[in-house]
Design goal:
This protein has one domain. It contains 2 helices and 8 strands.
Length: 158
């Protein structure tokens, strides 16, 4: 295998004007990506830019750039920080609700959304982003009495 250091953009700019935060499926056949399909306003005042940025949402696309599908409606606050589950069936994302960032998951096939967090914190990014783990790659953990810590009372007796 030769390392070429070539970069490849999964989608052309005309398909998705702004693209960021890509997350590949474990099989490498699909990509969840945050983005915005609307052109950036020509006049860049703060109000127009903020209105444009709230259109950021979550998409899923095949590895070859085909099948671009918007998963989250852009009518609400921006949906960002997408993370695709190991089997590619669900996507985690972050969206602001009542001034607090919350983490949601959406089923790729049924598009049923579930809010996973319901509280906010004092920091803007308290509930920002999420990640999955594949249970197939976890190590078993069981108690091992020989590795338990010794209490102070037992030490004093010796």
């Amino acid at each position: 295998m030769t390392l070429t250091r070539e970069q490849e953009q999964p989608l052309p700019d005309k398909a998705l004007r702004r693209q960021y935060g890509p997350c590949w499926s474990a099989a490498g056949d699909r990509l969840a990506i945050s983005g915005n399909k609307h052109p950036l306003p020509v006049i860049l005042d703060r109000e127009l830019h903020d209105a444009w940025a709230t259109k950021d949402t979550v998409f899923i696309v095949n590895r070859d750039g085909t099948g671009l599908h918007q998963l989250v409606d852009e009518a609400g606050p921006a949906a960002v920080a997408s993370a695709l589950s190991p089997d590619g069936s669900q996507v985690l994302y972050t969206q602001e609700i009542n001034g607090q960032l919350q983490i949601f998951k959406i089923d790729v096939n049924s598009e049923v959304q579930t809010q996973l967090t319901h509280i906010g914190g004092p920091f803007r990014r308290t509930n920002y982003g999420g990640d999955w783990f594949d249970p197939a790659y976890t190590l078993p953990v069981s108690p091992q009495p020989a590795l338990l810590t010794t209490t102070w009372g037992e030490l004093k007796k010796k």
